[in-house]
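Reply to dn_fold:

You asked what the input looked like. This is it:
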Amino acid sequence: MSYPIPADASNTSFALPIGISVDYRAARQPEELFKGLSSLPKKSPPQFKNTDEPYNYIVGISEQTISVLEVVGNRFCVGSADGRRLQLSIKKALMQGKKVYISFRGITNISAAFLDEAIGQLYNGDLSYEIIKYNILLRDISPERIFLVRRAIEEAKEFFKDPMHFQTAIDSLAAEGELD
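and this is what came back:
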């Protein structure tokens, strides 16, 4: 599957088809985002899917930027424990009704294990797809790393559709000695 990425991605904001948006412009030129806001219609209140779950909104009212560098504590995002810390920060902000901007500024290395835990685990069913789709935006991330994020999300969605299928496959490989 091919995803279009603008030629000049460093000066662009665009939505990924998997539900997370990338916003480069906001991190570099914040004053441009606020020009003409007074002429825009006011944001409607959050839409609740299920009144028993007050955090289950569709569009966040307030915003929060989460710096991956601050959460992880260094430029190397390679461990699943670091990914778990980021995931918990993202989930906490989403459950507070916030739109979350995830900034990768200053990050030099990102592993699949980190992304699987930080981003992929958001699709485990605790939050609706709509919450994730409309309330997470990525900033300061290269097109190459966007590919890694997309892959982590696609694999997580596939896994969470039928986790028992994957467990059966792992058990089968283990029984055959393939995992030694």
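The two ends are 33 Å apart (CA to CA).
Hope that clears it up.
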